[in-house]
Amino acid sequence: MVSRRSYGSYDDGCAAAHALDLVGERWTLIIVRELLLGPKRFSDVQRDVIGIGPAVLTQRLQDLESHGIARRRRLPGLGHIDVYELTEWGYGLEAVNTALSLWAVGSPTMPFEAGMSPDTVVLAMRAHARSVPECTSERRVELSLTDSRRQGAQPVTYVARMSTRAATVVRSLEPEPTDAQVSATTQDWKACVIGGVALERLPNVRVSGSEDAVRQLIGATSLNRSPGSTLVAEA
């Protein structure tokens, strides 16, 4: 396989050109996207990035390792399970993913009906996240998303936190008290937070606990801003 010449090899010293040398190959930023919320096994990445073959995934992960963007780590305990995770520098690519997302939603050919992995939906929510002025104290919502692109997919759980300062959504590592719980497919939840479809029109989205907290979450992380919300940088 013939490798692509780097922009640097053409005496191009632009930092943006160098960034493309690092992450500009097909699939590379998509793999990074799937690691932004935490480590994953090789099989997890291949499962979530539909269409990538194992040989290409192996090469892209090796490239990310060689550039210092990602690393492979063996989990403690029995089983000898290896995971891939971003380095501290690699996590800086979330800002790039956010900027690309915010820019791309203005495209006249944006495939709004296409599917998304659970992490990708959550990253879209994080890209649009803003504070909730009416939250006098922090509100928490457990969000359980099932990948609608795959039959038999297991749900992935996240916790959203909202306050007057910021709103964010992170992968849940252990159970914690929340004001509400939401269970949905990625297709339905995307229709809500990106497509603007009201919860009442999505009967397969199950809500328990505080409906007010869930509506605050939607208002704080949807593509279309709710009145009175303020865009903020995540702390």
TrEMBL record:
Gene3D superfamilies the record matches: Winged helix-like DNA-binding domain superfamily/Winged helix DNA-binding domain
Pfam hit, one: HxlR
InterPro entries: HTH_HxlR, WH-like_DNA-bd_sf, WH_DNA-bd_sf
Keyword terms, alphabetized: DNA-binding, Transcription, Transcription regulation
GO MF terms, alphabetically ordered: DNA binding
Transcription among keywords: yes
Domain HTH hxlR-type: 14-112
UniProt keyword Transcription regulation present: yes
Protein's name according to its UniProt entry: DNA-binding HxlR family transcriptional regulator
